Amino acid sequence: MSRPVPALTPARKLKLPRTAERTLANGLTVIAARRPAVPLVELRLRIPFAKTNVARGMLLAETLLSGTSELSNVELSAQLQRIGGHLGASADPDRLLLGGAALTSGLPRLLELLGLVLTDAVYPAGEVAAERDRLADQIQVAKTQPAYLARAALNRRVYGRHPYANQTAEPAQVAAVRPTVLRSLHAERVHPAGSVLVIVGDVPPTKALDAAEAALSSWNGGGKTVELPPVPPIDGGPVLLADRPGSVQSSLRIGLPAVGRTDPDHAALQLANLVFGGYFSSRLVENIREDKGYTYSPRSAIEHSTAGSAIVVSADVATEVTTPALVETWYELGRLASTPVGADELEQARRYGIGTLQLSLATQAGLAGLMSSLAGSGLRLDWLTGHAERMASATTEQVSAVAARYFAPARAATVVLGDAKVVTPSLSAVFPIDDGED
Amino acid sequence: MPALSARRVRIPTTSFPVEQFTLANGLRVVLAPDRSAPVVAVAVIYDVGIRSEPEGRTGFAHLFEHLMFQGSENLEKLAHFRYVQGSGGTFNGSTHLDYTDYYQFLPSNALERALFLEADRMRRPKITEENLRNQIDVVSEEIRVNVLNRPYGGFPWLKLPPVMFDTFPNAHDGYGSFVDLNAATVADAEDFFTTYYAASNATLALAGDFTVEQATELVQRHFADVPARPRPVRPSFAEPDLTAERRDSYVDERAPLPAFASAWRVPDPITDFDAYLPYVVLAEVLTDGDSSRLVERLVLKDRAVTGIGGYLGFMGEPFEVRDPTALLLSAHLPPGGAIDDVLRTVDEELDRLATDGLAAGELDRTKARIATQLLRDLDPVLGRALRMGTIAQQRGDAALTNELPRLLGEVTEESIVSAAAALRPARRATVEVVPGGAA
């Protein structure tokens, strides 16, 4: 007996939450959205941070919450706990990001504590010394992780001399950072100009804006604008083989060119990426996982940064199938770039792309992250409506044309991290190899 | 600076509506409607996990989870993925000590399709030799990427149970050995399905954009004719508590720095929930943030560890685990760090807590953090479906989910002090990671 799979009922229209926005006199933009399912608030603050020294930037993020002139790190943490809250900071080549959450009733207090940290972080010598050691240890551990090493090698290969090439400091560089340097970096760069604060939760948006204005208006607006140069074009060339002796897997990473969210090619590129490896029902997953069993989690993703976007393909495969797995991955790139995308697979990718927009709006934390990341591209939530329409109307011809432009293997920057002694013979029989030695 | 208000923070509870019923074939159903966004989560939780897998078949519960995605009565291999994702939805499954879950998160117009897909594989997954061999390869790569090819792989969840426990169900490697995985047969899978994947041994939980009437009708339509089979008898996994300290260590060739994890048995989470909850709060008192006891002392003051975490359950799921389970502390040390010194300090801090009690405000702020975390877990409809489904299965009533903030709020200082006093060295199991990667 064969039962039919039920049809979908009519889709509800993409439903955007209610939002409000205000730019304060000091230049801080605040965007608030209401999502009342639980009595919590989420916040995300992005502060432009381009061209910051990597070691100093990382340590500033680690020690920003280490105390103010009146609150120690322990007291600050206890104050946050009292409202069920937390705050955390991280830095990357584009921005310093502060994230936090609290019970709804604690929003004013959370914003006050945020303001206190932004205007009065003191970088105490003892705490900075301790965090310096911890960060150096964390970096040492990271450097033994294949995922970290493979990505670092890909970044160097893709970005050359651009600041994106090197996103993590060496332990020795971290060890050299003094508290005075952090205080001047904070004074120079931690300002509201160009910064965007997102507040999402069980609060009327205008009330959230008022609370932010009350707490953050005194934040000094005297920042300067620092911009990164655009990323260089990706060049193809030999496969970079990074040796990790004794590895029982090889980490394959491929960088390809992409465009930002506002580019006319963007919607079609997103669909092409889905067809290639951007979700489970993709060619890459069906080939090297579900057919051949080479890997657990192959995938491709479009990554957007301020100075440029890239497609990153990744798979961790058994050492003995390194070469066939890379051959299949390159085959799928070539197939996508040179033959038309099927109408059925495009339809399916389209429904996934549009449907998951709805899912991304359905939690406070997800919504806050999405709004913050859109703001990084100068966009607001309502951009999603147009994006859904552009995905809905993209034709197979458009998607195939975009695929030919961006997925061409000739433009792929490829990195293999693994046991070079074992994989070199078969890999070099198929691919030109650069073993990283000059 | 802003005034340090002494006002007490009111801890909110949740009041998610919950409807529950059981079908004639024994399938328990939990419905949690929420029309605030046009999305829906569907979860099926089977009452079988790592602790139930047969001896000689380590890793089988997890391997079987993979096989449930490889086709079913009316669907070919790959069809499940395509139908879910082609509806704009996402899916996954995961294997735990005491249960295995399967879930979908989709736009609400795909609700009936999601139910069909789950019912179809509850009737019969399509398990072929080819799919079995393929998924053994995939699982082998999963083990390599998560355990074998990285530092601290499987630490501590795979490394500590064999130190603390003696019986196969509690002590074996839930990811499985390659020998056992490769020896698995289609017949093993058929037996496992027949025994454990009965409708009467499963809970179906729906949360999100539907009405109770509509969902009830759709659940009936798709699941009522799933054949009834008897629910397997769940054996006791009980083991006596430790009476003498246990220590073990292993060399991790990839790890550059030392680490350790310790655990103490806690009261039965199901039958002795009131006695269990103080340990949930205690773990946060010890390790939540810079103002917690062990972070302040060991990370910030002594700098004896670079980070420390404390939690209930080997997989960090305090409300989704049965007895026996434990309170765990897991810490990473700086180069040359001495684990014995750290353990002595832990004992000292536990003694101090047991003797002097909590500081003013310490309990309230810890509870506020726990309440936030509970609410954050339940904000996604998927998180709600999974927690409600598991709680219904293990505790008989999904509505207890709404009671958790209140029950945790009622935990007293005295009970936390007693819990701290019970974490004696003689009841402790510890596993050390000896770094082999760096001198």
From TrEMBL, chain A:
It holds the Pfam family Peptidase_M16_C. GO terms for molecular function: metal ion binding. Transmembrane segments: none annotated. Residues 180-351 form the Peptidase M16 C-terminal domain. Signal peptide: none annotated. Residues 62-171 form the Peptidase M16 N-terminal domain. This is Peptidase M16.
